[in-house]
Amino acid sequence: MELTKAEYAMLEYAEKLTLTPRSMTEADVQKLRDAGWSDRDILDIVHVCAYFNFRVRVVDGLGLELGNWQIQRARAGSERAARLAQERGVPMPSDPWRVRQAG
Amino acid sequence: MTAHGEALRKESEDDELVEGLKRDYTRLELSPTERAMLDYAVKLTAAPSSVSEEDIKKLRAHGFDDRDILDIVYVICLYNFNDRLADATGISGHDFLYG
Amino acid sequence: MPYIRIIPPADATGKVKEVYESGAGPSADRGKVSMIRQVQSLNPDVLAAWRALDVGIMRGESRVGRRQREMIATLVSATNKCSY
Question: Has domain B31-89 been given CATH number 3.10.100.10?
């Protein structure tokens, strides 16, 4: 799975906004524009990111757990990805659920 | 942190409360119930994955029922959203209030 | 100015204008539209839905009092070191 430059920029932005919101600057927005996103696109990206920071806290705050069907589906997907990585001879991240630390 | 707290200032007319929350809420004289509510808010904001059922039990022990807890979680979530929206778009230091 | 384009109250039409004019927050008392709303204006559907959510959470009926809800809001923002 190759990400486009625009998608990579979007994800980098979402990670930074989640982990260190205080550090956001106009340069971060400019990077998204340079990658081809419009101001409306950027607002939508910010909304999704901020909304998932909302949702994560509903889930953690109330201790919601995944249903078995969700766990099974996620596990099956993870196994398919691992097989694909093996076929291609590329390493799989050891823990796909752990968020990388800000650095 | 200019706009934040202004709605509370209006609601409570208590400058000490507003400044205390911005600086160090642990030094405010609060009821144990309110202190428990605020401890939970800080934990869910700073380290959401560290929240456990024990934290919910603590809130219940202070008299919050499950509906109250849901309402508290939503306020915390809303401001985690608002803060990211504000920081992402650089409306920091603006003198307009939330609302 | 915000990093992204916004629709200022003077230029608002349709749904955006409707939301701007239905303000319930402290800024509405001063006849202003809060920046946190204006900055959502390029997406009017989300602006309207989020405002309804905001009002429901912060001003809706609850045993958690208005003052207590604003205490949480202030503390969450302080914890996030939000500069708004």
Answer: no
**Contact residues on chain A for C82, CB-CB shorter than 8 A:** 21-22
Pairs across A and C, CB distance < 8 A? 25
Task: Determine the pLDDT at residue C27.
Answer: 56
Between 2.40.128.120, 1.20.1290.10, 3.40.190.10, 3.30.160.620, what CATH number should domain A5-88 receive? 1.20.1290.10
B52 SS3 class: coil
pLDDT mean across residues, chain B: 89
Is B6 in the C-facing interface, judged by CB distances under 8 Å?
yes
Quick: pLDDT tens for C24-51. Answer: 665 555 567 888 899 999 999 999 999 9
Q: How many domains does chain C have?
A: 1
C contact chains, 3+ CB pairs < 8 A: A, B
CATH 1.20.1290.10 domain residues, chain B:
31-89
pLDDT tens digits for range B17-54? 999 999 999 999 999 999 999 999 999 999 998 999 99
Which residues of A sit within 8 Å Cβ distance of C? 21-22, 26, 29, 39-40, 42-44, 47
DSSP state, B28?
S
Q: Is the ipTM of this complex over 0.90?
A: no
Name subunits touching A (3+ CB pairs < 8 A).
B, C
